[in-house]
Amino acid sequence: MSRIRLLSPRLANQIAAGEVVERPASVVKEVLENSLDAGATRVEIEVEAGGSKLIRIRDNGVGMAPEDLPLALARHATSKIESLEDLERVGSLGFRGEALASIGSVARLTLTSNASEHGSEGSCAACEGREMDVQLRPAPHPRGTTVEVRDLFFNTPARRKFLRTEKTEFNHLEEVVKRLALSRFDVAFSLRHNGRALHNLKPGVGQAERQRRVATICGPAFMEQALYIETDLPQYKLWGWVGLPTFSRSQADLQYFFVNGRIIRDRLVAHAVKQAYRDVLYHGRHPAFVLYLELDPAQVDVNVHPTKHEVRFRDGRGVHNFIFSSLHRALADVRPGAAAPAAAPVTTVDGLAVDTATGEISQQPGLSWGAPAAARPGGGFGGYRASAGPAPGQAGEQLRDYGRLQGLPEVASDEAPPPLGYALAQLQGVYILAENSAGLVLVDMHAAHERITYERLKSARASEGIRSQPLLVPRPVAVSQREVQVAAEHAELFRGLGMVVDVAGEESLVIRQIPVSLRDSDVEQLLRDVLADLIEFGSSDRIESHLDEILSTMACHGSVRANRRLTIPEMNALLRDMEETERAGQCNHGRPTWTQLSLEELDKLFLRGR
Ligand code: ADP
Ligand code: MG
Fold it and tell me: Atom 10 in ligand 1: which residue has the minimum CA distance?
């Protein structure tokens, strides 16, 4: 065995770089975060060859005095915290004091900075050799800092090999810039790649300016189909944009969640959001959102991961519950003609046309709020159509009820017409055509009826309770001690959902009673999953979710099929029901149930000027 030696500073830094500098995008993240921490209101990013050849970031922040430059390059040197107490309520993005040292050990790094108001002053620093000694020379620079990183991984070939194509690396890098740009609307960002200007985001904190930036970054289609939400409690605030369920994605690629201005990826948050969308999203689809959670910094631990992508909440359950209920409420209110959700003001964001190349935004008449544009050609993810089997009696009876109970609409002259207007006709046995004050309404009658039936079945269950039955042979389930404890704590929750689970021993439970509709489900697996959720998130919606799925299937089979002729009163009754029903903007599978064609749009189709 050889003797123990102290690592050279460069090697020690290279080892640390292993954690934070994975690729050009990670360099950009660290350097940009420093600019934001330095109070910059404008940052210019210039890269070449996907960032592996050059990354140059210039800011107008507070800058650094010449004597601070060597310290900035040293490991474990930071101006952001001094004590453990500072760390516990840290407000800056950085605090570990090792990013620049790490980057400097695996690339050619120079810092040019000026902390004074005189543009003629400033100095430039670079580190060299095993000991990473800092060379300092005067260099004029306006107030602020320029960080230049050339030839990333030039001295660590093993890491260099892991770099992907220029395009892939640039995509990662651009994503980092987008995230940071979404985190600070008050800062101007520009990005150039290989001499070409790609983004030029103007600063602004007004609602319109924020929306413009989100539309530029996430695409105008997202903005057209997003709700603005804002929930403010004493301990938490949540605001931002959530995509309507009809704007779901095949990948979880349009999900931005910021906690006190820091982008994070967190299982707890992901679970809360998923749970909120559960009932309105087609299986396997992902919601899109840009959300900001604000809470007392002492309530979040950001020092759990070197790149700080993960955080830990002191009150994870509280946060989970808050996010879930805020989003759930907002999504439930998506129905035709619904006013802004009470707790969550909804701003109309439709009709914004954004030129993605210039980021310019213009107003144009568009779809009204609540009218999912996915129903337009090319939108949504159509293709789904329930197999046209014979409609079970129930649906027909229900529809007859509509006709009998609600009869023909009474068009009172001084009363505002209902949001979905009055039925005109039925098209191909599939669509209802109706006229409202904005123009033409098109309803997919099966999708709409399915949602109405489903919501009815759910409220019947809520008022009448879940029918449940004892198992002839109780089912023993072997679990951990912790799971036994959690099951005992939540016995009431299980009972409320029609499931009786008793403790049978230190490491065993027994299922004695289950909801009738779960007869054919794997209840043992369900129980295990629920316990795992309860341990991790403090709540679980798996049983409801399962029960809902069964109701949803029932609703689907019990709903009007395509090709069924409806009378005008039946159609009107369906429209009125849609207006009353939560989540009526989508069917149980997340497809849109109706869309609006405004008079302006119709005029446009016929090239008729008004
Ligand atoms: P950390 O950000 O964790 O403090 P870094 O290695 O990223 O560690 O930066 C070290 C220090 O260098 C920072 O604490 C800050 O004082 C200084 N610094 C880095 N970049 C800038 C900048 N763009 N403007 C002003 N100061 C900077
Ligand atoms: Mg930093």
Answer: 72
Output the residue whose Cα is nearest ligand 1's atom 12: 72
Q: Where in the chain is the domain with CATH 3.30.230.10?
A: 207-339
Q: Residue 338: is its pLDDT beyond 80?
A: no
Residues of the chain with pLDDT > 90, as a percent, come to 53
Cα 301 to ligand 2 centroid, rounded to whole Å: 17
Q: Quick one: pLDDT at residue 365? A: 29
Domain span(s) for CATH 3.30.1540.20 in the chain: 347-454+560-605
Q: In sequence order, what are the residues at sequence separation of 6 or more whose Cβ sits closer than 8 angstroms to the Cβ of residue 490?
A: 534
List, by residue range, all CATH 3.30.1370.100 domains of the chain. 466-557
CATH architecture of 207-339: 2-Layer Sandwich (3.30)
Compute the distance between CA of residue 511 and CA of residue 530 in angstroms, rounded to an integer: 13
Pocket-forming residues, ligand 1, beta carbon under 6 Å: 30, 34-35, 38, 59, 61-64, 72, 78-80, 94-101, 145
Listing DSSP states for 502-555 in one string gives EEEETTEEEEEEEEGGGTTS-HHHHHHHHHHHHHHHS---HHHHHHHHHHHHHH
- For residue 78, give the ligand 1 atom closest to its CA: 14
Closest Cα partner for 529 from 604, 479, 600?
479
User: What CATH superfamily is the domain 466-557?
Assistant: MutL, C-terminal domain, regulatory subdomain (3.30.1370.100)
Model-level pTM? 0.74
369 CB contacts (<8 Å, ≥6 apart)? 346, 348, 349, 350
Residue 316 Cα, ligand 2 centroid: separation in angstroms? 27
Span from the CA of 97 to the centroid of ligand 2 (angstroms): 6
Question: How crowded is the C-beta side of 197, counted as CA atoms within 13 Å?
Answer: 10
Nearest-atom number in ligand 1 for the CA of 61 is 24
Is the CATH number of domain 9-201 3.30.565.10?
Answer: yes
Tens of pLDDT, residue by residue over 348-384, are: 223 333 333 333 333 322 222 223 333 222 222 222 7
Residues 396-433 have pLDDT tens digits of 334 434 433 343 444 445 567 899 999 999 998 889 99
Q: Per-residue pLDDT tens for 271-282?
A: 999 999 988 887
Q: What is the mean pLDDT of residues 112-118?
A: 94
Kindly report which listed range (51-65, 119-133, 298-312, 502-516) carries the lowest average pLDDT score: 298-312
- Asked if the 347-454+560-605 domain carries CATH number 3.30.1540.20, the reply is yes
pLDDT at 481: 92
Span from the CA of 330 to the centroid of ligand 2 (angstroms) = 37
- Burial of 547 by CB count in 10 Å (0-12 exposed, 13-18 middle, 19+ buried)? buried
